[in-house]
Amino acid sequence: STAVHSDVSPMTLTRYMIEESNQNLDKEHLVDLQGIMSGIQVACKKISSLVSRAGITNLTGLEEGGGSVNIQGEEQKKLDVLSNEVLKNSLRFSGKMGVIASEEEDEPVVVDEVASGNYVCVFDPLDGSSNIDAAVATGTIFGIFAEDDEQPCLINDDEGDLDAQKAACLIQTMQPGKNLVAAGYCMYSSSCMLVLTTGHGVNGFTLDPQIGEFVLTHPNMQIPSRGKIYSFNEANYPDWDPTLQKFVDSLKDGSNKSGAKYSSRYIGSLVADVHRTLLYGGIFGYPGDAKNTNGKLRLLYECAPMSMLLEEAGGLATTGRERVLDVMPTAVHQRLPLILGSKEDVQELVDLYQAE
Ligand code: P6P
Hints:
Helix content is about 30%, strand content about 20%. It is built from 8 helices and 13 strands. It has helices at about 15-25, 30-50, 80-95, 160-170, 240-255, 270-280, 300-310, 345-355; strands at about 95-100, 110, 120-125, 140-145, 180-190, 190-195, 200-210, 215-220, 230, 265, 285, 315-320, 340. The N and C termini lie far apart (about 45 Å). The model has no long low-confidence stretch (mean pLDDT about 90). 6-O-phosphono-alpha-D-fructofuranose binds next to α6. Pathway: Carbohydrate biosynthesis. InterPro entries: FBPase_C_dom (IPR044015), FBPase_class-1 (IPR000146), FBPase_N (IPR033391), FBPtase (IPR028343), Fructose_bisphosphatase_AS (IPR020548).
């Protein structure tokens, strides 16, 4: 964007979205995305406030009455549930949503104002929430699809079979990541940063508490073509495939193509590990292994949005065997192996797999 940021007239996320759509009048989604991003950023500000005061307001720990368990079989933290409600409502009030799919919802939710909704939002409202009690970085991850015009999502009671209509809506969430019109995350850490792509480049906005606005601090983010950091949970090393074991060994002893010995950084919170990788370069992975062939991360609302961001920032995102954005979902909560980061680092591993 040619826009200029200054204290007198800050380049807020709201202003950025308006200017971006004015400069790309051919991209009709951008006008609708203004309203959607307005809802998402309000939700992220609210979640940031909830997270930063969790210990004070006794919002750490498990949902009331002991750990209610979500479809992931994970104990739901109070903040998971609250963050999910905050984001769901903000998206609903945008008036642009047809269907919402969340890590915290067993099934996708068809929102009320369906007649005006023609977008689908997939999100993890508070990823890494197991770290909350230890005040470690967490984040919200979101992706926005346009609805498939062939089968618009309309719930209309007098139009007959409600179940069939709802089924048509739910299918809207089963889109490959390459269909995303926008993706991003908001990281709740030493600062609150919202990183976003709407299909041409990646921009980072930092929440300025003095004005309560996300202001542009990282225009046109591009990941270095090669890094010196690898980020995997090495406790799983014994269960990795031999190719990955050899690759990571080569990063440790410097026998990889760069000749450099890498450092290891693993926060255990996807948003924080991806954010650091985006800024510093290197490679992050949650691969499949002998115990979990599809790894741990969810395709729809973790792998796909992060993969769009990395590709838009000049990086790569793969399962090891195929491009993440090409993967066609078959279930809302399906898991997928995820390797992402600097183009040269990721390509080196892909080449090793292809040479197997
Ligand atoms: P592990 C957090 O629980 C999470 O879903 C992601 O944010 C993170 O990347 C991953 O799990 C960490 O998993 O098995 O290394 O603790």
